[in-house]
Target: histidine kinase
Amino acid sequence: MDVANLEALNAHIVQRMDTGIIALDPTGRVRLINRAARQLLGHLPGGDGQALGELSPALEAAYEQWRAHWDSNSGPLAGDGAEFLPRFQPIGRGGRNGTLIFLENLSEMRAQVQQAKLASLGRLTASIAHEIRNPLGAMLQASQLLGEADYLQRGEQRLVGIIGKQGRRLNQTIENVLQLSRRAPASRRPLALDDWLQAFAEEWRESLPPGLTELHLALEVDPARGLFDPDHLRQIIDNLMRNAVDHAGANGPPTVRLACGTGSDGRPWLEIQDNGPGIPEEIRDRLFEPFATTSATGTGLGLYLVRELCEANQATVTLDTEREGACFRLHLAAAHGRGDAE
Model:
C-alpha cells in the first residue's frame, strides 16, 4: 500500500469514528473535522481552514483556557446536537505542530449507562415480583374479604381499611418499579413538537374526568423539532400532567400551561407549568431521586421515571424555580431537516 492510499485509509477511519475529532494547526485553524464532531456541533458547513471560533465559540474559549494552563480541561459543553466533553492533546512539544481535540458525546454515554441500569433493574424486579408482589396480593385479597364481613365493629373496619389502603400503595410502588424494568430501548425519531403537543392537549382534554371541568389548559406552541421516542414522550408528559393537575389551583382557578419552542442554542424544549404552590425548597435537590415525594399518597417514583426516560432519549429535565408554581422544562436533541417529522 503506497503513501497516498494509506493516507486515504487513515482519513476514512477518522471519519468513521464515533468520537468527535478536530485537528488544529499551530495557529488554531481547523485542518480536519470528522463526521461525529460535525454532528455534535450542529452539522456545520465548511470546517477545513476555518477558525475554531467560527465552528463553536464555546469550544474556542475552552481551547484558549487549556492553552493558557496546558493541564486544565474544560467541563461539559452544549452543542446543537448533544452535550459533549472536550479533551485536548498537543501535537509535538508545546503544541508546536498543532492540537487534537476529542469530543466525547456525554448524552450518548448517559444513554448507554441508562440501558445498563435498566437491565440490572430488570433482574432485581424479577425477584421483587416473586418475593413481595405475590404475598402482597394475597394480603390485599384477604383484607378485602375481611372488610366485607358484617360482624366487624367500626374500629375494626377502619383498621382493615388502613391495611387495604397501604397495601395498594405498596402495590403501586412495585408496579412503578416493574414499569421501569420493562422499558424498551428508546426508538428516537424526529417529531414536530408543536403539532405533537397540540394533538396531546386535545386528546387529554377529551379524557378529563367530570371533577376537573374547571381546569384551564393553556397551550403556547412555536415551531420546534426534536428527537424523541414518541411513546416515551407521551409517558413523560402524561406523568407531569397528572402531577400538575394534582397541585394546580393554589393561585387562582386551576391552570396547567403546556408550551414548546426552540432556544437560542438551537435546542428544542417543552414546558409544563401549574399555578400550584410549587416544589418545597427542602426537596428540590433530590426531586428526581427514587421515593422523593411531598405527597402522603405518592410513591415518589413518577419524576424518577421521567428523568430516566429523558436520559434514555439523550434529553434532560429540570425544574425552573424562578417561575410560579412548578415548571418543568425538557431539553431535547435537535432534529435536522423537515421531511421526516411526525
